[in-house]
Amino acid sequence: MKEKLLNNLGLKVVSLVLAFVIWMAIVNISNPVVSGQPFTIPVDVRNEEILDNANLTYEIIGKDSVTVSYQVNTRNSSLFRESDFSAYIDLKDYNDVTGAVPVTIEVNKNKVSLIRNGEVTAKPMVLHVKTEAMQNKKFDLKVNYVGEVEDGYASGITTLSSDYVVARAPESVIGKIASIGIEINREGANADLDGYVTPKCYDANDKELTDLGDELTITPESIHYNMAILKAKELTLNFEVKGTVAPGYRFTGVESDLKSVPVVATKSVLASVNALSVVDDKLTIDGATTDKVIHLDLNDYLPPSTTIAPNAQSQVTVTLKVEPLTTKSYTLKLADLASSGSDPDYEYTFSKDSVDVTVRGLKEDLDTLDIRDLNAALDMTGLEPGTHAGKLTFEVGEGFEVVNYSDFEVTVVSDNEDESEGPGQTTADQETDEPATAGTSKKQQNKNQ
User: Fold this and answer.
1) Closest to 163 (Cα-Cα) out of 195, 139, 198
2) What is the CA 283 to chain-centroid distance, rounded?
3) Greater confidence, 422 or 353?
4) Nearest residue to 29 (alpha-carbon basis) of 80, 74, 78, 79
5) How many whole angstroms separate alpha carbon 244 and alpha carbon 310?
6) Spatial distance between the Cα atoms of 16 and 22, rounded to a whole number of angstroms
7) Which region holds residue 246: left if phi is over 0, alpha if psi is between -120 and 50, else beta?
8) Which of 49, 195, 275, 321 is deepest in the core (most CB within 10 A)?
9) Which of 167-171, 236-240, 428-432 has the lowest mean pLDDT?
10) Helices in 31-146 by DSSP H: which ranges?
11) SS3 call for 194
12) Residue 334 is inside which H or E element, if any?
């Protein structure tokens, strides 16, 4: 088989070359019509203003390109290039029922005569256009601050070139926007800030929307801002309370949800201010038997030329604490008490060994009060021989009051009257040589000690 193929090989090659030359000659002489090279070209859009005037926007569904087909003579097929063709749709031909718009093909005027019958077809022959109403919506600008100013300073008033913007976009895009705002970076600022920023769109969760399409326009495109940076100072709040609570109760102090408030002003003004005094007729406890809750606006009590720092809390809730008083009894042994005003020439005895003392105060304070904290003492000042009502003195801490103590008597006897009848001693007493009253002799106790 191989030998058959190789036999007369030269003759066979010459025959093939000759056949090709003859075929080319026939083709060139007859110049038959063939399909030209297909080209895929983009489709332009004309008369867009027709939809704009109708307040509509459009979107081409699917591909926005077509493939052109045509027929030419063989000798001319190599002369065509993609740039010889252009395609467009005219929106004045838009069918609002089907959304279809026919595609028109244009050919370079120097080449159109080379195409058989000048006919060029496009695939697809129509494009489908989807329209949607445009919407204009006004949004109030919100200001978002990034970072904090330098310590000792506070953000002042921010002035914007416009308080709102108008967004224009298809209704479906506008529906995604919950708010529009600007961001101002105030990190470490200690002087006024000034500049331009571009508005940003946010969804209902305050997340920035970054892909809303090219049809969204926001007017104005940029916002000029000026932000004052003021010297700030924390002022302690002092509440001036007036009045007297009902009997049996005690005012125990002021509680508030704010201990201080940041105030901004010039340095010279702040230099002389350290606290904010809150004086108001509402701050009264006259006749109070329970806590009193009051709501105040601190702006009403600011010194001249000062303001509360922006974004700082100005509303304060104040509670005037009122608690009931209670009593507690303590038992004191008279013999254990110190005395004052006693005379060394007299001997003192008591009708009782102990007395009960009633102290008034707040329950939690009384629970911690020790009997020694009463600093009780016997007062013998001016007592002459005889029997007298006993008297005690106390030195208790603030918040406590000794209401009363049980009665007792003190019998005073002069050392010179031990052998004779005299004040504080009867004849019977002399015969029995016993004390006239029960109790311990204060002088004898002192001697024993």
Assistant:
1) 139
2) 30
3) 353
4) 74
5) 37
6) 10
7) beta
8) 321
9) 428-432
10) 49-53
11) strand
12) none
